Amino acid sequence: MKVIWEPQGKQKAFQERPEYEALYGGAAGGGKSEAMVIEALRQVEIPHYTGLILRRTFPQLENLINKSRKYYKSAFPEAKYNEQKHCWNFASGAKVYFGSMQYENDKYNYQGQEYDFIGFDELTQFTYSQFIYMLSRNRPTGPGTDVYIRATANPGGVGHGWVKERYILPAPPMTPIWEEVEIVTPDGTVKHMKKDRIFVPATVFDNGILMQNDPSYIASLAMLPEAERKALLYGDWDSFEGQVFVEWRNDPSHYRDQRYTHVIDPFPIPDHWRIYRGFDFGYAKPFSVGWYAADPDGCVYRIREFYGCTKQPNTGVKMDPHEIARNIREIEKTDENLKGKTIRGIADPSIYDGSRGQSIAEQMEREGVYWEPGDNARIPGKMQYHYRMAFDKTGRAMFYVFHTCKHFIRTIPTLVYDEKNVEDIDTETEDHIYDECRYVLMANPISPRQHIPAEDRLGEDPLNMREIKKGKRWYEQ
Ligand SMILES: Nc1ncnc2c1ncn2[C@@H]1O[C@H](COP(=O)(O)OP(=O)(O)O)[C@@H](O)[C@H]1O
Ligand SMILES: [Mg+2]
Description:
Radius of gyration: 25 Å
Bound molecules: adenosine-5'-diphosphate, magnesium ion
Helix content: 25-40%
């Protein structure tokens, strides 16, 4: 018998997983797309089986479709590919579709559809809401099919943050992660259901076939700029191409001395320091309130946050402005660093929009919470972050965050550049805290400081590329 395709070690581990969701890869060249295209075939003997393989944009699908042409036809000579529908029709009646969803709302093109299998290739390019929407399309097309989700990913992209939180952070690789979800049925009874997922890591070093056929591929990965190289070659989820705040440092061993770290231990704010409160409104998306203290030298500390996010990333708690304001009052009455202080509120200028009735600002004023409109110049605002995050010779920055501000610490490092508007942040990412803080920084602008990078914290470098690249342009920090 002629073997058409055989999984390599890690691909086999991925294809054997019993979990509902499995994320494979985490680096370039690990054989991710191959494993995905083959996985979609698992149930094609079942006549009503329907599979779907997704990439964010249609042109990116070409690589996957080519792989399917190579393998599907040889494995199932009677299978036919329909170019218009981007669909393979198998003799049994089963179907495997290739699809994309470039724009956020393209997800609704899949409304009313059912797929037993959905495979996301390069999941970090999708938004969380697209992913979650498609989970609702993952249903049995008839009796006897296994219903599940598979995905591949590299670090980086608009989805970096939520993918890392969902698959990478909760448990070590190859450890099943269980999530309990609460479902309220129409009659009001609450049901608890469990779903499981897992991350199966692979890098190019796990793809012996590629290493043998194209040894220069590793060299090209090794020649990438620092952050991209660490991500794509070694699958490092802490660094990736397109990250906006590459200078961000969170080093618990320096929380106390505040050197070469932006995250620090909380401390009592002296009475004479000025206090600010920033605000970015959201309802279906999270809202963000942040409190800041400025020391006599103008250094700004984010000391407290109130973030309106559900347990799902980038999903709002749907709290109205009155209630947000009442919560703010409560926090300012009880927080030791805030009570009795004069607090200057600076907010997204759009909260003054009264074109659809009473503005958000007016509603909050009625509860005794006052704002002034922030400066929404986006690029200068981003530059204020950069200027303030730069460390001086002694490792001190002009901006710090108390380690209790969990959501700031979670979202700021995941911000990526917009592919079209390359100087600005991609607003598909969870950027509400970023915006809220930006208004406060713009109310206290500083001039650029000389940037002195934190000491090199590179880990292992098995290829010793650091030596090779010394002196070259891309080695510059
Ligand atoms: N099981 C396999 N059998 C044969 N070739 C494979 C296999 N897995 C990977 N390859 C080879 O490795 C190359 C890279 O795999 P691919 O799945 O495209 O990587 P990734 O999507 O992780 O970047 C493929 O083009 C193919 O030549
Ligand atoms: Mg691929």
